[in-house]
Amino acid sequence: MSRQSGGTQQNFRCCTLTMATSEPQKLPFDAVLSILDRITDKNSLYECARTCRSFHEAVIPNLYKSISVVVARYHKSLPQLGPFKAIETHPYLRQYVKSVEISLGLYDYNMHRDRLVPLWKALSHLSNITSFTLKHPEDTYFHLPGILTASIVSALAGCEKLERLTVLSAISAISIERFSSLKTVKAVRFGHLLSSQTLNALGKWFRQAEGGFHTLGILIAHAVGAGDIDQLTPYVSSLHTLHIGRNHGLPPRDLLSLLVHTPRLQFLDVTYYGPQPLGLVERGSGYLNQLQNLAVRYYGFSDLSSSHDFHHWIEYVASSSPLKSFSLISNDRRKYELARELLSILYTKTELEVLNIPDVLLGRSELGTLLGTFKKLRVLSLFLPDINLLVRFSQVPRPHKRSSAHPLAGVLSFIQIKRPAAYINYRDIPASPKNC
């Protein structure tokens, strides 16, 4: 888009509008809204808002749709609560806010506790928010103080549209009980569940929720053990997204038994711990027949038998699933050497659009078969131990340039190649997608 200034034209990076004639023309306001709705960069939106009054009116709803604040780190000065101050100064902005993210460390909270009162007051006025996130600026999981939990719950009590609650900290049973008073929440994601009592409180919350929850994420799952499978199964039937992170105590067979009770599941992100013989788990006709996104995180295997058990587990989960995205990620950075066995399972998933295997060692034959099999692949992330294998990628066309020379022509939009010392990004791709 552009504006005239002193006879010259200034271009803004948010978008560029080319008119068919030199005469000034006006786009319909709905068209402007549709264009601006596709811009996610805050700086670009801010520049758009400064061009003219019409664009200012169109940009403001998107500019304040999602707001975030980081409480000043290790400073005794007043925390910088800019977005919330702007909303309190201009109350008409409240209606546009849909998502709020607060980055706050325990040290910062203890230092600024009294000064954060305006933050909770401003949050309580945002009745239209659908998502709330509390996290640490450095992505660590501090113990959530009871008084902080009470402040958050009190501020969110009037948010009748709140659906998603993300609290990336160490959560106790008392905190879960307090959060359970937020009756509209249907999706929860926690950093660390501390004990079985916490899991019991979470189960009680799930049981009381009308219509059930559709999303559950536990990034560190110490509270989930082998004896808890019977506790979990009654509450997961409504889930379409499930994330069970590291340090849980569920052996492979128990994980499969849990998944039997998730007929609506579409997104699964799980950490695999083995070895354990799978035995037989009754799947039923609808077993994971809606699962489209599977991410499996693992720790390196000490013997061939453990690797085979892992293959059988993946095959069991993926066999009846219409997968469109598959990720295999090493938690301890140990490479996965049985690429052929793994890919033999995936070759039946011809609808795959995203393949994220940055820790799987691929040879020339596996790479060639991979590129020739998945004709709908859009995003590919992989590991190449030999730089000479890059020669094969010279046959892969650049995105948006169709050619009959390769089945992926015009389809593949991002390739990321990982070598031991570097990442090599496919040229002309500006950034990695979030799900890669």
Automatic annotation (TrEMBL):
Q: What is this protein called?
A: F-box domain-containing protein
Q: Where is the F-box domain?
A: 26-67
Pfam families with a match to the protein in the record: F-box-like
Organism superkingdom? Eukaryota
Query: Which Gene3D superfamilies does the protein's record reference?
Result: Ribonuclease Inhibitor
This protein's species is Marasmius oreades
